[in-house]
């Protein structure tokens, strides 16, 4: 049980680390990350790349997350500074 909790936290952290994901986006994709890309956890870049490669197999909710433009912390800051 403790291992499952650790994996859930790791997957949530993994999805949130490199890019800015909302709690809702993490909720929609955590199951897919475990199902399709568990061998890449906890490497953020590998999980993201794996999820993109597996896009056809993603759940509809997670697929919608990956269909949206990527917002990274750097691009979000630049966008705010441009205003």
Helix content, binned percent = over 70%
The dominant shape is globular
Tally the helices. Answer: 5
**Rg:** 13 Å
General description of the model:
- By secondary structure, the chain is an all-alpha fold.
- It is built from 5 helices and no strands.
- It has one domain (2-82).
- The protein is 71% helix and 0% strand.
- Helix 1 crosses helix 2 (23-37), helix 2 (23-37) packs across helix 3 and helix 2 (23-37) crosses helix 4 (60-67).
- The radius of gyration is 13 Å and the shape is globular.
Which features does this protein show?
signal; globular; disordered N terminus; mainly alpha; 3',5'-cyclic-nucleotide phosphodiesterase; 71% helix; 83 residues
SSE blueprint and pairings:
Layout: H1 2-17, H2 23-37, H3 44-53, H4 60-67, H5 73-82
Helix pairs in contact: 1-2, 2-3, 2-4
Signal peptide: 1-18
Protein name: 3',5'-cyclic-nucleotide phosphodiesterase
Keywords: Signal
Question: What's the gist of this structure?
Answer:
This protein has 83 residues and is mostly helical. 71% of the residues lie in helices and 0% in strands.
